[in-house]
Records
---
Amino acid sequence: MVVGPLLLLVGALLRIRFDFFFPAQLAAFDHHPGLISTSYALFAAGHLLLWPAVVLLAGRVAARNPCWGLWGGVLVLSGTVARAFHAGMDHMAFRFADAAGASATTDAVSTTYGSFQIFSVLNLAILAGWLVLAVGAWRTKVLGPVGAIALALTSALPLGLLKGTTLLSLVALAGLATALVPLGLRELLRSPRPRPAVALRWVAVVGLVLGVMFAVGQAG
């Protein structure tokens, strides 16, 4: 709830000076590969980190109204899966640009853009999920009116392949942060705090697990 929205905001801000559509994004990658790669990586990581936040929020809603909590959670998580697929397409487009150049990649993307893939079925979930979850959070008083409206703004975040940042993107992500970050901080303050030695042990374990996962993923 705290880290996910902030990573999304940072990722979006890193590419705000470039035009929104894919030819400009690929041209930006050609001239600033480190910046654009970091931007898209942070954006993808932010969406990955949202799933436990969504599960917690949907669970709080479902405890008071199972229907709103269930459908809000299912739709938002389905949309998050679709965005993960989009992030994979972005990654492959950049790798193709490394191998063949930005111009050839732009031609390839232009030719194949809009081709059917099964995850396009979830595009409506990306747009509607946050609205459903926001209404449910408001109706069950898990979020107040301001927080619910802010969460609903997330539905305005553009979707698709190689999308840059617009003012609408920043409004949507600012809404997400406004809704989730204070809620996440309250959860941290409410939760029992482990002893420093226990916390350090868990940090070491998590770091080791992530290192192994990274090594296995790279090897695969």
---
Amino acid sequence: MGEGISLSRRRALFGAAGLAGAGVVGATAAACSDDPKPISASAPPGMVPFHGARQAGITTDAQDRLAFAAFDVTAGTTREALRDLIVGWSTAAARMAAGQPVADDEAAPQAPPRDTGEAIGLTAGNLTITFGVGPSLFDERFGLAARRPAALAEIPPMPGDNLDPLRSHGDLCVQACADDPQVAFHAVRNLRRLAQGAAVLRWFQLGFGRTSTTSDSQATPRNLMGFKDGTNNIKREDAASLDKHVWVGADGDQAWMRGGTYLVTRRVRMLLESWDRDYLRDQENVFGRVKGSGAPLGAAQEFDPVPLTAKDASGELVVPEDAHVRLAAPATNNGATILRRGYSYTDGVNQATGQLDAGLFFIAFQRDPRTGFIPVQRRLATQDALNEYIQHTSSAVFAIPPGVRDEKDSWASALFAT
């Protein structure tokens, strides 16, 4: 375990009950990018283009706020009605990303407004809206079973999971990110209104304080445990790594997904009251990093390589065997690499325990979850010292198609092509 107190001692100090959880994919998991060129090259400041080869909100500079929603298509909705919904969502998303209301014309005084109005007077706030489809969409309802990619399979159960089915899964997903929380909320709220009669909201998550960086221009943020998060994430400037680890290539088994990616979400509750009572040295051993600087243990600077083989004078590994940074590193996972884009969250108080319901809403993009998230998380769930302080409470996976070419196109249009 290195220099910190042992796992058994931590359990004795803080109580094993309620501290067991599942691992969270680590700070060294790699990241990727979705914008083919910098925002400033194709849009005014504060505005991210909706149209392009890739969907925005993947490698776009991570914004400060998140509104994430999963939807279920309602019973009786036809394939044509689902297609109409997707077209309508695409048109509305393009307008909102440009800082415009969903519709220019106002409804008659005796009819509901066409836009909910809470974003009037606000800027676009670098809003990005990213759409995806879940495995359940490919059942018998819409004749899409033959077009389900092999990589789009539900995440298997992991040791320590305590998943709420009402916060997991979904037919469709919407990820809205912005620098203004009201702009992000406005986007999801209006898309939900447009879905009336065709899809219903299954679950919804707000997030604040990005927990990763997706560009060389961004400083590494901190998670709610006080540690820098996402230091070794892939950056959008690293096109070669994105092509290798994030974007579905020409060899993808479904043509409609080539150029797209896959999204995994996990709601990870942090047991902050227990964490806040732990010693600093033990906290650093849990993560494998210095809390202040973010440097790996045994290194000087944040971005120094993690010294995985280094030992101290007593022959102990400087970075403990169960340190999060070690277990999540691509070097110890046969090169498995993902693009992280998560956010902190707080949902008030857990009524059962009287403790904060807060933590990480984990978001990761990858070329194939079967070779990305799943093997890394399976290892973390059984070995990570961080498990003592976290618990996974929701899980979902979605296919994220490539971008919307222009105003005549819509997201997932190739999925419905005859």
---
Amino acid sequence: MVSRRSVLGGALAATTLPFLGPGAPLAGSAHAAEPTTPHGSGLAESRVPRAFSTPMPVPTVLRPASTSGDQDFYEVTLRKATAGILPGAATDVLTYDGHFPGPVIHARTGRKVVVLQHNGLDMPVAVHLHGGNVSPESDGNPMDVFDPGTSRTYVYANRQPHASLWFHDHAHHMESEHVYRGLSGNYLLTDDIEQGLPLPKGSYDVPITIRDARFDEDNRLVYSTADRNRTTILANGAVTPYFEVAARKYRFRLLNSANLRFFSLSLSDGTPLTQIASDGGLLERPVSVPVLPLSPGERADVVVDFSRYPVGTQLVLNNSGPGSIGQVGKVLRFDVVRTAEDPSSVPAVLRALPAAADLPATVVTREITLGMDEDGRPEPRGFINGQVYDPERIDTTVALGSSEIWTVTNTNRRVPHNLHLHLVQFRVLERDGVPVGPAEAGLKDTVRVMAGSTVKLHVTFGGYRGDYVYHCHMLDHSSMGMMATFRVR
């Protein structure tokens, strides 16, 4: 199997213990280097823009190149571009059609989306629809890449219910760096159930992708595996921006697209966020959450009602996740600038979901372990059930339409992980033997697994036969080998 060193020509970082998730070492640990500047960015302090000095962009919505019957056709080119992330400077990024932040595709259940992707880069790529129930040839398997100068057609039947999905590169050994440099976008799937609710819509329904980054003195994004100096926080590609809002309700579709960093989000005045959805769409009921945790790849839709604040109010979305508050504690600021009519509301019941006791009967129980080297070796490896990813090996075979219980344990002492399954949405039943709360009881495709902890999942393998992967979505970890293949037969 080709190694990351031979593909990218760069060495893996010496540390295996990034501090970006709960339970990992604190700053100053012997296992991790100190940040290079007060901002941890590698830039001179004067180059880092002042917090809340730039507006937050709203991602561009892609328009179909053509429509016919029940199908929308898109044509997209993956290419290099530059983005004005830092004041007065251009930063090289990788993009879908030149968009940074990545674009949005709107889709509807029952209406097919076909995307012809042209590879205008100098590296092979694979486009994965994260959270999508799609056929194996359109899943973006890490080894199913297409080369520079070639194209690949991806077909999304959209047979699943509404969900805030996203798409990103998944070429093995390169996925981590490619996503870090910009290859991700939103795929917002809706249906009649969601559209029939009086939730905020249109310009009051805003995708917000959050992540971290590090820049050098020449304004370039710096990439190295397990880099704990990524402490410049971006929201929709802007450094700690502001976003002007009206005094009314907004729906924010939050996505953590970072490689490693866990976020814990809250409003600066202590008002709880109203969470209405997780990875796989609406929760059964809205949940009031004082702090919203998001690990890499996870999504959560929240509603914030700004009508409780007078015009002129400035409200910060804070991050209390791992790291120095002075470096990573602020994500963006909401500025209430006007009044507005508001016909929207958040219903007490959002959708019907079966209770845990009413889920389909399971036929198999599996034990899954996640782990990685944490002894400081220069090229750490990631493992699932003690094995490094081998694309020639089928690790798990499941029956189409069957339901299983997966008990997933993080065997590391300090390093957090999470688990993402392709093809399916699952239900999280327990954490360390305790039933999960309502914010985590909806449909999920990515789940946090803290060091030494265990989660229990109910998984139904519906949709398609074929080979798919499951892996840690801390992408630096999956590129180290923390990935496995399951076959649906």
---
Amino acid sequence: MFDNGRVTDLRPRLPSPLQEVTDDRFARHGVRLLLKRDDLIHPELIGNKWRKLAPNLERAAGRTLLTFGGAYSNHLRATAAAGRLLGLPTVGVVRGDELAGRPLNPSLARCAADGMRLHFVDRATYRRKTEPDTLAAVLRAAGAEDAYVVPEGGSNAAAVRGCRALGEELRDHADVVALACGTGGTLAGLAAGLAPGRRALGIPVLRGGFLGEGIRALQDEAFGGRRGDWGLDERFHFGGYARVTPELEAFAADFERRHGLPVERLYVAKSLYALVVLAEEGAFTPGTRLAAVVTGSPFTA
């Protein structure tokens, strides 16, 4: 990838492991539950973060990386870690200028410790970040006019094409593949890689009902049109991004006890909860091989 002698730090574990677990909540409906352990791809560039960042790192070719995220963004942390491992400068544009000057939360503190320069912007500017004039102003203010820009969540055409490999790894092993979605880039690529007759199911973790349009736009940009059989179930956001209710916390803790698997709360727990409900609703026919993508692991400071 790079000729700086440190590329060995980025060697991923691919394909990621596929682990079948026995869970009576699925077994009694004749459904086999498989966990696609993308959380084991790399110790710091975890899960879909590796799959989306790797092609963008190739395209950046040693330039400063600038990207966007909220105060608890997994994507910001992964980008900062990649910069440290490869010796690349990184800039994180953080939503919320009210955070500037305050003590950093553990997530942003990790970004800073990895060498990422944090640039805080007000929420109105952040909402307009894809507009050319606003983006140019942000780049100037951050002192990064020549940076390679990676969008929020890492989802662009290069990332979507990188995530197609996830679907290819599951072509012969699963009938339905489910994962939690933020920006939708992983689902857009995953669906394109699945075999005909297989289905991808996205569980949005944000409120709003806007994700379908974004996924279609990403597939248009990456592949020239819609690819694969995919759909969304919007019912399981638990109030929105970074919202974890007592019910969801109890569910995640119970899943951990049942299967000895640390469950990341903001994404993975919501997708697993959704699958339990859907199984009870009869959404999967008996004999279905249901793969849940474990896209991340719990953050520890």
